[in-house]
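Running co-folding for zinc ion.
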Amino acid sequence: MAYVLSGDYWGKQTVSYYIDLADANQMMAALRAFEKWDSELALDFVRVYTPAEGDITVSTVDIDGPQMALARAKTFTNPENQITKSVIQFDSADGVTFQTALHEIGHAIGLDHSGDPSTIMSWRVDLTLDGLQPDDIAGGQILYSAPELLFGWNIGWNFGWYHGWAYGWNADWYVGWGVGWHVTGDGWTYGWTYGWNVGWNVGWHIGWGNGWNFGWSVGWYYS
Ligand SMILES: [Zn+2]
């Protein structure tokens, strides 16, 4: 493994982020990047809509024009090496890509540059990578471990494979992604879930299939 830790880390499980990006594609790239890291770690990212509430803030600024530096991230820590704030700034001339967003979020959670050039955390991000590499994930999981499998309720939209039939309310099970409110021992939180669920859903579905359903469910999911 070639990952390098900065020596700093978030001392809590839920970390909020605020994104100030006008471009819809850049916004999607940043949201996907937070979601990807979230899905690999026992660290939960929650989006907030006021800058002051954001543990991590994301914006664009003029750094050095096209090429050269694509972005920068600065972390602030307390005396116990716990990160208290991370500021990610993308060069407005270069914009935001999924890969650079993954890289800067890596810095924002305590990863330094990996010695392996074919990783997201390489000092020079390989923009052809399709996402986090095993070395990137290994570094992140050293700091935060792998996602926990939790049991709880979910209310919201769910997308995934399911077995069932008919239109209307259905008692059903599915495996897939869900977005909505879910409750665990820690209370209600909003976000994405993944896993097996059984519960009530409303929507069209016939036989085996996949699609969106709205409803509530209870089941196991990764947090
Ligand atoms: Zn970097």
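Result summary
The longest strand covers residues 167-184.
The radius of gyration is 19 Å.
Job closed.
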